[in-house]
Amino acid sequence: MQHRIIVLGAGYTGAFAAGRLAKRLHPDDVQITLVNAEADFVERVRLHQVAAGQDLKPRPFAEMFAGTGVELRFAKVTAVDADAKTVAVTGATGPETLAYDTLVYALGSGWTDQGVPGVAEHAHEVASRPGALRLRDRLARMDAGQTVTVVGGGLTGVEAATEFAEARPDLHVALVARGGLGDWVSPKAQEHLRKVFGGLGITVHEHTDVVEVRADALVTADGRTLPTAATVWTTGFAVHPVAAAAALETTDRGQIVVDRDLASVSHPDVYAVGDAAYAIGDSGSPLRMSCASGIPTAQVAADAIVARLTGAKAGRVPLGYVQQCVSLGRGEGLIQFVTADDEARSGSLRGRFAARYKELICKGAAWGVANPTYGLPARRRRLAPAAATTGSTVKALA
């Protein structure tokens, strides 16, 4: 019988992993099912561009995976039972239970209100396509001179603020940062950030904590009230809640604890990749939630699965960092070179060249997902006899 591999989530990591597995395993021996709620790929790293009014190239999964042998299942994952090796989903035909032999968990993360009052009711997010589209509609309806305030001074917040300011110079754009503006980059890079922000007319509230979000204002920890017509919340991510209820060993943040092969330490037939995984990089530090972590973890997991099932030897893909790529609107950018554990080095690229560099990175990531099997060895490995399993793939719930 075929070995049943289910991949949950078709973001950068899940789609990449499914394609790599399809290219490296013989279709007579495995059945690979990719489960995702939406029918086309979402370029999450560009959602601030969507919110600013830009349209992205459609990437339907049916076209991306045509001819690969990957079965597509468009459904929402509602539960995982790691002990029973089943996944509960709800799709167009109702609830179903999918049985697996190997599971790749790539459900990723979404936004979080960090427990701050008023965020859920009054703030917008750019961590999902629906959220970006809602914000897009809100910005389109804003009048000249009104204020849009981005809360969060990390990569997402910086990119969103500069994108909005460039696309809508008639609006007043503000950024609220808990630390200093760009205090995670080198001094020259930080200087460049300040120059770009100044040129775009963005107001920056540094070393400021927001303790409440209202419909028309933000309340800060030092008692100030900052008027705003729209608030964009970018203070961090929360992982999908399914893993914590799946009998898998997770951290207090809900990430699945994995070994160097990205296999769950409590259930070795489950591999977690991307934001869903609590993985330790080669430097000894946990990997951060990011696309830069996601693709390497997906490659490691896919290669480890192939090695386990076929008896082949997996290569060792590095788990660490080289750079942080930041778009500052369409014409400016910042490439901060970092150590393997993500600490800023002195070197950086700035300006238009950095903007083009970042654009190539984004295009390359999307192209790699849209062409998941390109460039891999044509020979598909047969499974070792011990990997053969039995059992039906799908059982309808009564």
Automatic annotation (TrEMBL):
Residues 4-302 form the FAD/NAD(P)-binding domain. This is FAD-dependent oxidoreductase. PANTHER family: 64 KDA MITOCHONDRIAL NADH DEHYDROGENASE (EUROFUNG) (PTHR42913:SF3), APOPTOSIS-INDUCING FACTOR 1 (PTHR42913). Pfam families: Pyr_redox_2. Its cofactor is FAD. It comes from Glycomyces endophyticus. Keywords: FAD, Flavoprotein, Oxidoreductase. Gene3D superfamilies: 3.50.50.100. It comes from the Bacteria.
